[in-house]
Amino acid sequence: MIIPCYNEASRLPADAFISYLNRVPSVQLCFVNDGSRDDTQVVLERLQRQYPRQIEVLNLDKNQGKAGAVRAGMLHCSGQGFDFLGYLDADLATPLDAIGDLQAALDQKPDLDLVMGSRIKFLGADIRRDPFRHYVGRVIATFISNILRLPVYDTQCGAKLFRRDVVSGLFNEPFISPWLFDVELLARLIRKHGRANVPLHAAEVPLKQWIEQSDSRISPTYMFKMWYELYRIHQTYRKVG
Known about the structure:
43% of the residues lie in helices and 17% in strands. It has nine helices and nine strands. It is globular, with a radius of gyration of 17 Å.
């Protein structure tokens, strides 16, 4: 699992990562230090020394944004023989135990290339989101679904898992947007399989828990820039599938 990190020294939930690795030794983590300006590298390298077989640290000299950090980590690990590769946010809004649920979905359906965590609030699920951000997110999600012409509920949840053999093709090209690259990944799946066949190769898995963290890395002003990036994505991929 790729964990993109930017200035996470004071908030990285190290104990949660350690507890999970002790319980699930088959999972390996690649922390991508995305040009942090604090002591993130020191914190990550300390974790790596504790768990050298399960933790790798990839340091990027310059901040590339989440898309660039995830892409760097995915391509770095794609040749290491793992069956599955994915990514999670460093704040663990999606708990690490969700990895097992995503993998189970891939195990059950061999044709799937990608499974995406989805923040759907229903009885039995612990989904905690700021109401305003939730409703704004639903407007954005509907817009994204219309752009892709796919019935996708939640492209922007930071929990996804891929089969190794599709990673190179999906991540080889740089992304247009530093935060909306998940939309581009689905557009690239459309390009690979055709729009009608994407539901056979990608699926959403409702998360059992997702707790919004207050220290967001997205600037409030990005909301204005985001619409331009969606327009660029639409223009770039509108002829696929």
